[in-house]
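Quick one: 7,8-dihydroneopterin aldolase from Nocardioides kribbensis, structure tokens please.
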Amino acid sequence: MSPRTSDELAVLGVECWGHHGVFEFERREGQTFVIDLVLGLDTTPAAASDDLHDTVDYGSLVADVKAAVERDPVDLIETLAGRVADVCLRDHRVEWARVTIHKPDAPIEATFADVALTITRRREDAT
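--- reply ---
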């Protein structure tokens, strides 16, 4: 974490419908993906001003993340997680983003609770 930022904004459990996966039936039928976002940012300006313009609008962020998940199928959740992290880092105030992609209906021949991948990307990593 950056020495400048000790604040975290979390939006957890964002449900999206996507057609991602390596199997043809995953791309054809689609499935639920659940996204957790944790952003590192300085919330001091927003706390002082009490103005939405001084912080990340998490309503707009969620809409952008859903759009990113629900478009252009990819094979791997690693690729999808990178796409979502890029969306989070578009806002210049976000210093880092921790993204977890849950794929609870992954095609696994066993009883399991969840498949999840978590990545962390920092502003200097963004393209």
